[in-house]
Amino acid sequence: MIELKVQCDCGQKYKFDVEPINGRMPFTVNCPVCGADGTEKANALIQQLPEFQVAPPAPAAPATSEPAKLRLSRSTQVTSSAAPPPIAPVSDSPSLAPPPIAAPRRPVAAPATQMPGRKPSFAMGLLGGLVGAFVGAAIYFLIFKYTGLRLRLLAVGVGGLAGWGAELLGKGEGSKELGGITAVFALAGILAAQYFVALGWWHEAQGAGFGDSAYAVNVRQAREVVAAIPTGSDGEIRNYLAKEDADEGDKPDPNSVSADEVKQFREVNLPEFRDLASGKMTEAQYNASKGIDPAQEQKEEQSEESTFKGVFLLLLISKANIISMVVAAGVAFRLSANA
Which of 73, 206, 301, 308 has the highest CB neighbour count under 10 A? Predict the structure, then answer.
């Protein structure tokens, strides 16, 4: 076996081990970058090696004008009584046997994706695919949430980042197993991003406090009221009630609040808000005073959650969304599996 180093016309250098047969390559090789055939260059390198160079034939003796004549003297004549010299038997030594002809090897193409000096890693490829899918899903979510863009092609970007991450950290590992797992990572990232986007839409549609109990919502409101009416004076109550009654965009008018409304709020509403804000009134006491059944409230929350899941499922099964996810999975597979 010898090591050959070939430089392609494109400038890429690559090396491999080979056992030449009759001074030539037993298989074809290609450039790992441009794919050009480098077999002839490899053959030329083999011919330059000393062990594969053929020695030139010895020069022939110069020809003479007269052919050489054989002269026999009487002293060299063979008599009938002289025995001919014995003929030496031919030895059957194995060293004189002709070397066996090696069977030609099956041509094996040189790997086109593995770069010289880079050792592929399946585990690092998995890590790269996971990180790429996470980063792509985060970008997908942020673009949807803060820009309002509803481009389904963003899902393809998630697949591209996942495949690129697997190819980069895996150093060209390029197996179908890695490609399949990376495609799953990309799909999981897309689904997660779409779930949180839909959940944000649902919260916006339901308003603030979605998913909280009535007690938790009223505690937050009570703290806002106590902060707006710290002393409980008529002026503070009038300003608060006027602000609550004013439509959006209109200027509050404290003079529109009557004295009876101020008295009613100070004697009935304000004490309850203070008890809620200070924690003096517990959730059980609040539910009992308002006639709220916790079991029924939980049942209503589960019904709202089921409604949200149904809406999310409808978003998933849309034609455009399915096509974008299939394309994203295909991009992730091709990039990470070198397909």
Answer: 308
Please indicate, yes or no, if residue 308 is contained in any of the structural domains: no
- Pull the structure tokens for residue 161: 């980042």
**Per-residue model confidence (pLDDT) at position 95:** 43
Examine the pLDDT at 198 and tell me if it is beyond 80. no
Of 134, 133, 128, 130, nearest in space to 167 by CA: 128
Residue type, position 86, single letter: P
Rounded to whole angstroms, the Cα distance separating 254 from 275 reads: 26
239 and 283 belong to one structural domain: yes
pLDDT confidence tier of residue 16, bands split at 50, 70 and 90: confident
What is the pLDDT confidence band of residue 131, given thresholds at 50, 70 and 90?
very high
141 and 188: one domain?
yes
- Whether residue 43 lies inside any domain: the answer is yes
**What's the total number of domains in the chain?**
3
Structure tokens at 2: 């010898």
Domain extent at residue 41: 1-53
- Gap between the Cα atoms of 22 and 93, Å rounded: 25
Same domain for 196 and 227?
Answer: no
pTM: predicted TM-score of the whole model, two decimal places = 0.41
Helices (H), the chain: 39-48, 122-147, 154-169, 176-206, 214-228, 234-245, 259-264, 270-278, 283-290, 294-316, 319-337
Q: Do 181 and 251 fall within a single domain?
A: no
